[in-house]
Design a protein that fits this description.
Blueprint: H1 3-15, H2 19-29, H3 36-53, H4 59-77, H5 83-90, H6 101-120, H7 123-134, H8 139-146, H9 150-168, H10 181-188
Helix pairs in contact: 1-3, 2-3, 3-4, 3-6, 4-5, 6-9, 7-8, 7-9, 8-9
Length: 189
C-alpha cells in the first residue's frame, strides 16, 4: 500500500468520524460559530499533512489537540484578542504547536485547491458535499433540503469525497464509478 493511500484510508477511517464532535468544539469555543466550517477545513489540511509524515498512535487525542492549537493560533492572530478566550482555549489542553508561515501558506494553497476541486464536481454531487461538509448538515437534513433520498445523499457524498481526495492528491478529480449505472444519472441531476 502506498504512503498516500495509507494516509487517505487513515483519514477517512479515523478522522472523518470525529467531524461532528469537532464542529461542536469549534461552535462552542470560537466567537463566530459561522467560521466553524472554515476551521474544520483548515484543521483537515493540517491533519492530512501531519499524517504524511507519520500517523499518530491515538488519532482522537491528536485531532483534538490540533483543533485546540488551531483555535489558539487563530485567536492570537486576531487584531483584538480576548484575554478570556485565549485563557479558555489554553485550558482545553497543555502543549503548543505553532503554525509556521510555510505551513500557513501551504494550508491556504490546499484550501484554494479544494475550492477548485469542488467546482469540478457535478452540480448535485457538489451540493451534497457542500451541505454535508461545509454547512454541517446531517445526511437526513441534506436529503430533505435537496428533495432526494438519504441513499442518494450518501452515495453522492462517497463519490464526491473520492473525487476531491483524488484532486487534492494531484489527480484529475474525475468522478469514478464502480459499476453502478444509476450513479451517473444521480451525479448529473
Amino acid at each position: 500500500m502506498t504512503g498516500a493511500r495509507r494516509v487517505d484510508e487513515w483519514f477517512v477511517r479515523e478522522v472523518i468520524p470525529l467531524e461532528a464532535s469537532l464542529m461542536r468544539l469549534f461552535r462552542t469555543h470560537w466567537r463566530n460559530a459561522a467560521e466553524a466550517a472554515d476551521l474544520r477545513q483548515e484543521l483537515y489540511v493540517t491533519l492530512y499533512e501531519a499524517g504524511q509524515t507519520a500517523l499518530p498512535l491515538n488519532t482522537r487525542a491528536f485531532v483534538f489537540r490540533s483543533a485546540r492549537n488551531l483555535l489558539i493560533n487563530r485567536a492570537r492572530r486576531e487584531q483584538v484578542v480576548s484575554i478570556e478566550l485565549v485563557a479558555e482555549l489554553e485550558s482545553l489542553d497543555t502543549g503548543m504547536d505553532m503554525l509556521t508561515p510555510e505551513r500557513h501558506v501551504s494550508a491556504r494553497e490546499d484550501l484554494k485547491r479544494l475550492r477548485l476541486g469542488l467546482e469540478q464536481l457535478p452540480p448535485r454531487c457538489r451540493e451534497v458535499v457542500t451541505l454535508r461538509r461545509i454547512e454541517g448538515l446531517s445526511q437526513k437534513e441534506a436529503a430533505t433540503r435537496m428533495g432526494v433520498t438519504e441513499h442518494t445523499v450518501e452515495r453522492q457524498m462517497v463519490v464526491g469525497m473520492r473525487a476531491l481526495v483524488d484532486f487534492m492528491l494531484g489527480g484529475t478529480g474525475r468522478i469514478r464509478r464502480e459499476g453502478v449505472a444509476a450513479d451517473a444519472e444521480e451525479a448529473s441531476g
